[in-house]
Amino acid sequence: MAGPMEQFEVRKIVDLPDFTIPGVGVIDMAFTNSTLAMTLAAAAIAGFFALATAKGEVVPGRLQMVGEAAFNYIDNLTTSIIGHEGRKFFPFIFTLFLFVLTMNILGMFLVFTATSQLAVTATLAAMTILLVLIVGFARNGANMYKLFVPAGVPWYMLILVTPIEFISFMLRPVTLALRLFGNMLGGHVAMKVFAGFVVSLGALAAGGGLGLLGIPGAMLSLGGVVALTALEFLVAFLQAFVFAVLACVYLNDVVNLGHHH
Amino acid sequence: MAPDNTSAPSADAHGHAPVGSTEVPGHHAESGGLPQFEFQYWGGQIVWLLVLFAILYVLFARVFVPRFRKVADARAETIAGALDDARRVQAEADAKAEAMKVEIDRARGEARRLVADAQAAAAEQLAGSQAAQDAELAKQIEAAETRIRSMRDGAMSNVKGIAADVASTMVEKLTGKPVTATEARAVQGNA
Fold first, then answer.
1. Average pLDDT for runs of 10 along chain A of length 261
2. Which of A117, A183, A184 best probes binding to B when mutated, by most B CB atoms within 10 angstroms?
3. Which residue of A has its CA nearest to B44?
4. Which of A148, A211, A251, B11 is deepest in the core (most CB within 10 A)?
5. Domain that holds residue B122
6. Which residues in chain B come in under a pLDDT of 70?
7. How far apart are CA A67 and CA A49, in angstroms?
8. pLDDT at A59
């Protein structure tokens, strides 16, 4: 029986030539099950939106309706959090949301979940924070320090508040990466463990005798798997949404630095 | 789960395989630690992810989002246009109703004027014919009165002659002398 961690193992499917980045080192560009999952997700997104936006009718068809629902959902999100300037960041937030969501959902159907790889979630988090830093410095320049110095706070409080704000800012990419990673990892491990119980208790029952006591346990575990699967679908959406919301919130901090709206 | 799975030594322990080797890495998981911390696959995953994300981002920024915006704009424009049309038609209808009202008022005034004219003409005609009739009647009355007056005058003059005759006859009878015409006339004047 495969262990609950086996589903997270990266395996090579097609070995591609290595790739050397100067100053970083040699990168194994092999096409793995992880990159396959990402590619499938990206292809699914691109394919779906290519079809959904192909006609661009004023009165939308079914596909276009779904695409527009997602579009409006995230558009409203960015505009409500960042304000009218949210439009500029909308493509990034939308891509981020859809990519994470599709990788999460694909993980529910395929054997591999790309977002349960820390490498993937850390890259997405690093990208988000890099964008926040670039936008922040480009817009505010040296005023970026205001991010750690809230307006209207007395100086003796600032001694305490500024380090806390600084640390919390520094931890943002870490929490962003670990939240998604931990949720997907934990959920899939739990599902696999419960599913493993069903098989092992069933095998015990097949042996007859006292082992028959395993049947109620196996049934309970099966119920657990069903419940967890439903929960994981919710988590798959929720974590993508949380990622997008936090990216918006972090962008808003630097876009509207100093003037809260 | 191994407690040291997040530490660098773990990464070193799994990083022994030369990068790019074709070895199947299945057994690493059994040696403890999360498979996610096998750093030999990090580089490839990161690069693939960045490439895929970049492709998706460009697709969305350049193709899909503008398409959605265009549709949304077209929809907003259509709705605004329809509203404008409706407003314009409404205004037109209002103007027509106003014009109609003015027309109706005018027609009503015209009708009122016509009725008043007709009444005035009828009254005038009535008054005219009445006056003519009155004049005719007055003329007839006048003629009758004239006739009556002449008849009376004629009768009166006859009575005078008769009275003179009677007087002269009476004088003749009483005095035996005939009365001269001059005397008779004098009597007449005293009578």
1. 77 81 79 91 95 85 91 94 91 96 94 91 95 92 84 86 92 95 93 91 84 87 94 96 96 83 49
2. A117
3. A29
4. A251
5. 62-154
6. 1-32, 183-191
7. 7
8. 83
pTM above 0.90, yes or no: no
Question: Is residue B178 less than 8 Å (CB to CB) from chain A?
Answer: no
Asked whether residue B1 is domain-assigned, the answer is no
Interface of B with A in 7-66 (CB under 8 A): 19-20, 22, 24-26, 28-30, 34-38, 40-50, 52-53, 55-57, 59-61, 63-65
Look at residue A260 in the predicted model and tell me its pLDDT.
57
Q: Count how many pairs of residues, chain A against chain B, have C-beta atoms within 8 Å.
A: 150
Per the structure, the count of domains in chain B is 1
pLDDT of residue B10: 38
* B124 inside domain: yes
